[in-house]
Design brief:
Blueprint: H1 2-18, E1 35-41, H2 47-62, E2 65-71, H3 76-89, E3 93-96, H4 105-113, E4 118-121, E5 134-137, H5 139-154, E6 159-164, H6 170-183, E7 190-196, H7 201-213, E8 220-223, H8 226-238, E9 247-250, H9 254-261, E10 267-270, H10 273-290, E11 304-307, E12 310-313, H11 317-324
Parallel strand pairs: 1-2, 1-3, 3-4, 4-5, 5-11, 6-7, 6-8, 8-9, 9-10
Antiparallel strand pairs: 10-12
Helix pairs in contact: 2-10, 3-4, 5-6, 7-8
């Protein structure tokens, strides 16, 4: 089963990154002015978002594109204003990591009405009809697989706890849906506790410390990102249970990978920020030059590029890190 999943993932990545015959060529800076893109970022407090901004900037420069990053500070109204200002400034394209809320459709529609391609990356909006392209990771799948791996280890009558990100956040909802898909198959698994770690180390540590302090049975921990996983590992260590509880999270940042090597965590999912940035830039350039995408997406709609995540465990971490260079 593992080999089959790996083959599927590799095939999908090859199709997305290497098999697009109409991929947009690099701009010739000597022949025309660089394109001006804006990247609207929710915050810069997580590993994956820092990487996305870096990759969009660096890959954009190689393609003759200037990418300016604007951070909304998790404020929906601020991000809508940033979209409106970008339209007024006449940028060539907008790439948006969307904040929570349906009101962002106002900005999406305004950009589309102005003839400016607006694409979403990593986190999108409620309706992709007028989005040029939506590039994202299949977070439901990460949740489903993480919970399955935990249950495989603790058994079908085990007790799990769930550390959510900020409640109602699009990523929180999608990962939680994945957890539930697996839980629905195991009616005898008990969710002993569920709460929020607000995507950060400190809140997650306090939440899990409180749970562990009750003395109630806990066999495994599902955590929605690596920042929270760091706090969870501290709480588990303080309770003297390091290595005893399977812990899975998202983002594959360096401290979680080291924790896997040290036996403190079982797995973490890579979100492929390099590939997300590559596809977003490629499709934005193509929309500007041809009015079309370079290829149909892999998601439910033709403009949706749903990418598979990659689970990093002790079994493949050497190979994974070797590819990172």
């Amino acid at each position: 089963m593992k080999k089959k999943c790996l083959v599927i993932i590799v095939c999908m990545l090859l199709v997305l990154s290497a098999c697009a015959p109409a991929a947009a060529p690099a701009a010739d800076p000597g022949a025309e002015a660089p394109l001006e893109f804006v990247f609207l970022q929710v915050h810069a407090d997580s590993y994956i978002l820092i990487q996305l901004a870096r990759e969009l900037t660096n890959q954009g420069a190689e393609l003759g594109v200037n990418v300016t990053t604007l951070i909304s500070g998790r404020c929906e109204a601020t991000q809508i204003t940033q979209v409106e200002q970008s339209i007024q400034q006449g940028v060539d394209a907008i790439i948006m990591q969307a904040t929570q809320g349906e009101a962002l459709m106002v900005g999406v529609n305004a950009a589309a009405d102005a003839g400016i391609p607006i694409l979403t990356i990593h986190e999108g909006v409620v309706d992709n009809t007028r989005v040029g392209a939506a590039v994202y990771i299949d977070l439901e799948w990460t949740g489903e697989v993480a919970m399955q791996r935990i249950i495989d280890e603790i058994g079908p009558d085990g007790y799990v706890v769930i550390v959510n990100g900020s409640m109602g956040h699009p990523s929180q909802l999608r990962i939680r849906e994945g957890y539930q898909r697996t839980l629905d198959r195991y009616p005898n698994v008990t969710v002993q506790f569920e709460g929020t770690g607000n995507w950060n180390n400190e809140d997650a540590m306090a939440t899990v410390e409180a749970w562990l302090g009750t003395g109630h049975r806990i066999d495994g921990i599902a955590v929605m990102n690596d920042a929270m996983a760091a706090g969870v590992r501290t709480a588990v260590a303080n309770a003297g249970r390091t290595g005893e509880l399977p812990i899975y999270s998202n983002n594959a940042q360096a401290d979680s990978r080291q924790a896997i090597r040290d036996g403190e965590q079982r797995g973490t999912f890579c979100m492929f920020p390099v590939l997300q940035a590559e596809i977003a830039l490629r499709e934005a350039i193509s929309l500007i030059r041809t009015g079309q995408l370079t290829q149909e997406g892999t998601g439910p709609a033709r403009n949706e590029f749903a990418l598979p995540a990659y689970l990093v465990t002790i079994d493949n971490i050497d190979e994974y890190e070797a590819r990172l260079g």
